[in-house]
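Researcher: Please translate sequence to structure tokens.
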Amino acid sequence: MMDSADIRAQLSRPWKHGEAVDLRGLRVTERLDLSGLALRGVDFTDAVFEAGVTAKDARFDGLAWFKGAVFGATSDFSGAMFVNDARFDAAVFDAAADFSGAEFRGIAGFSNARFPKGADFRALTCYGNADFADVRAQGDVSFAGSEFLGGFWANRTALPAGSDFTDTEVHGRLWLRGATRDHIKLSAQDFGLSFGYTWT
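Model: Translation complete:
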């Protein structure tokens, strides 16, 4: 088991292409604070963060994999920059998640993620594909003011009533087959602007 200080020390070493710290399956009992740090690549697949994560304004220089991770308390990735692929596939956020103002320069992967307490995706900038397929969310969810330059994939995504897409721009493919908001089918008209093909 590693404590938060050990994890910060490991991840704060200079990033080298092709290298990533293997922290798969790790259980962290205290809150992990990575705020403002420049971080090397890390694989947190199936990790459990009992007290949540704070990575406000952090820069993930290498891959940032949180696939299947469980966040037991609020998680703050607001203003974070993901220089390579960010994978939160099948992650479970048992408390509110904040990604507002984050920048994804690679893939923003959230397929099968669960947000039972809401999620803030306002003012995102995504250069690669944003994958929200099969996401299930409740509570307050907002994508307002976000820009998806590599398209937005929402196959069979289920969002709660009031999910906000105001002023959201999608460049490239917009895939909405089976996607719903409060059990009502999502359409391109629910987004601020959509440039490119739409599949519904």
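Researcher: Any highlights?
Model: Residues 22-199 form one domain.
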